Amino acid sequence: MNHDDALTLVRDILTDHLGLDAEQIVAGANMREDLGMDSLDAVEMISALEKQIGTRLDPAEIEAVQTIADVVDVLLRHSPVGALR
Amino acid sequence: MTGTRVLVTGLGPVTGIGVGAEDFLRGQLTGRSGVRRLTRCSADGLPVGIAGEVDLPEHLAPSRRQLAVTDRLAHLTLAAARLALDDAGLDPATLDRTRVGVVVGSGVGGMETWDATGEAYATGGPGAVSARFIPRAMNNSAAAVVSIEYGFTGPVGATVTACASGADALVAAHQMLVTREADVVLAGGADAPLSRQILAGFGRMRALSGHDGDPAGASRPFSADRDGFVLAEGAAILVLETEEHAAARGATGLAEFAGYGRAADGFHITMPQPEGAGAARALDAALRRARLTPTDVSYVNAHGTGTPYNDAAEVQALRTALGESATRVPVSSTKSQTGHALGAAGAIEAVASVQALLTSTVPATLNLDRPDPAFGLDFVTGEPRETKVTAVLSNSFAFGGHNVVLAFTRA
User: Fold this and answer.
1) Contact (Cβ atoms closer than 8 angstroms) between residue A35 and residue A19
2) Is the CB of A47 inside 8 Å of chain B's CB atoms?
3) Do domains B7-248 and B256-409 have the same CATH topology?
4) Strand B378-379 relative to strand B330-332: parallel, antiparallel, unpaired?
5) pLDDT > 90? residue B223
6) Could you tell me which chain A residue has the CA closest to the CA of B131?
7) Angle subtended by helix axes A68-78 and A39-53, to nearest 10
8) Which residues of B touch A21 (CB under 8 A)?
9) What is the value of ipTM here, to two decimals?
10) pLDDT by residue (tens digit) across B112-140?
11) pLDDT at A85 exceeding the cut of 70
12) 3.40.47.10, 3.10.180.10, 3.40.930.10, 3.30.450.80: which CATH number matches B7-248?
């Protein structure tokens, strides 16, 4: 999975599960301030991500996530090299 | 306590026969039916395949985000609140929003969410349950989303008395206003019960009409061949204001919410007390609180569900409470057109009651070609009836034995 694939995946998760606008979901967007996401949205997003990568995420790792770029990084860290969606 | 007069200053009905005050009035007076083949959920294996359904116009339809995070219960309620505020000519930004309350009754809460969660749990276990499940499903979400949308931070709450929830919400709002807890209250009811579980449940109780012809003919209150109610979704919010608050902004009000009466059956969880004793006491209390006598009543908007038991008990209650006037007062049932929208019904019918005052016209009960010969009341059938309307009683009688009667008079 490369960076673009990961960003597309995050965008799909946030539009499908949270009803957010795709064009707002850019790497630099802050999830709370720019996208208006709350703690319930975060739980839904993390569940969808965990389902995607097939493993539970470390709470400390999730804690640090603030922007879409941070989510993309988490996804890339946990995806096997070369794995496709 | 010397209470202020409580005025109705805005109407926001969201029903299968009309959305918004004007459309809903036209729907009533032209004999529309909101009942059709079920589309909100699959009818496979269910005992009935019809329901009263609402089509929200595009400008009131939920956004993608709202669809993802809230139940249809919230969507119907927000549409009703928007319509009611517009009808009242109220701009939330100009109000002291700490003095604005919200009360929305809902009988069954966010049922679409309950159905979806049940399926997710059955297939995926606890981890498949959405973090939004509880806030989407809880009955008070309807009131909460209105409070959050507009920043109304006076008293905000919900009433849960099944099919009297909407009427009870109006009572709660009345009390908030006369006790000066708020100056303005958005009050009403909402239910989005077109769920497979709810349809199955009412079906198992044999409460639903089994009519299998034209869906528009299925809801038959007071008819000799009535065989149950038709489930519906819907919402209605009314803007209620103290007379002082309305006057200060130059509003005269559409009607006075002159009083209410409540009494319980204390008899059976679903069956009404056959003589309608609790309902009669509620009617009597509403008359007293509104300072009316039976001869003052110009229209009764009946609970009129079309179940054999409800309609019979309601007729008995009207005979007991109104005495000789019972056979003189025009009676009709809005549910003959809308179906039964549970917790929304009392509020939808409050709107119809106010509109009868405004237009001096009593809408007709649909499908009432042959009233039950045992009843003998003055049912308005066929065409709406023009008559002087100065005081209206609106009945809501619920599973659980909750009887609520609202009284409206000219402003």
Assistant:
1) no
2) yes
3) yes
4) parallel
5) yes
6) A40
7) 30
8) 64
9) 0.90
10) 999 999 999 999 999 999 999 999 999 99
11) no
12) 3.40.47.10
- Calculate mean pLDDT across residues B308-317: 98
The domain locations on chain B are: 7-248, 256-409
Q: Which of A19, A43, A47 sits opposite B68 (nearest CB)?
A: A19
- Average pLDDT for residues B371-400, to the nearest whole number? 98
Mutant choice from A11, A39, A44, A45 vs B, greatest count of B C-beta within 10 A: A44
Residues of B with CB under 8 A from a CB of A: 63-69, 127, 130-132, 135
The pLDDT of B96-119, averaged and rounded, is 98
Residue A51: which residues within 8 A CB-CB, separation 6 or more? none
What is the 3-state composition of chain B as percent helix, strand, coil, each rounded to the nearest 5?
40, 20, 40
Cβ of residue A51 closer than 8 Å to a chain B Cβ: no
Residues of chain B above pLDDT 70, percent: 100
B41 is catalytic: no
Chain A residues whose CB is inside 8 A of the B134 CB are: none
| Marked catalytic residue, from B75, B163, B211, B402 | B163
What are B298's two structure tokens? 């110009």
Q: What is the structure's pLDDT at A80?
A: 67
Please answer yes or no on whether A18 and B135 come within 8 Å at the CB atom: no
d(CA B359, CA B333): 17
Average pLDDT rounded to a whole number, residues B42-71: 97
| Catalytic positions of A | 38
Write out the CATH class of domain B256-409.
Answer: alpha beta
* B309, two tokens: 């038991």
Q: Is residue A83's pLDDT more than 80? A: no
**Under a CB-based contact definition with an 8 Å cutoff, are residues A20 and B66 in contact?**
no
Query: Would the pLDDT of B350 be above 80?
Result: yes
Distance CA B283, CA B257 (A): 15
DSSP structure class, residue B285: H
A9 contact B CB<8A:
no
Best CATH choice for the domain A3-78 from the list 3.40.50.1100, 2.40.50.140, 1.10.10.10, 1.10.1200.10? 1.10.1200.10
